[in-house]
Amino acid sequence: MTKNTKLDGFKLRKGDHYYVDGLHKDHIEVFDKRGKARGVLNLDGTFNADKSKKAMSRSIEKLLR
Q: What top-level branch of life does the organism fall under (predicted)?
């Protein structure tokens, strides 16, 4: 992200990383600038609480090195 943006009450911050889930291709996973999971958004921009809980254990820290 290059600037702060708010979607469905979820604030995407400058420096966040995100990608479309490769397995299901039905949601976007958001990570902070350090690579720790922040949450999951549906493709329509709404926050997905159930998938976010599961994603909190994920990290992309190794990819950012």
A: Bacteria
Q: Classify residue 18 by burial, with Cβ atoms within 10 Å: 0-12, 13-18, 19+.
A: middle
Residue 47: strand pairing partners: 41
CA distance between the termini of the chain: 18
Reported as type and span, the H/E element at residue 30 is: strand 27-31
Reported as type and span, the H/E element at residue 54 is helix 49-55
Q: pTM of the predicted model, to two decimals?
A: 0.86
65/49 Cα distance (integer angstroms): 29
Structure tokens at 33: 């600038």
What SS3 class is residue 52?
Answer: helix
Q: Which two tokens stand for residue 25?
A: 């291709």
Structure tokens at 31: 């990570």
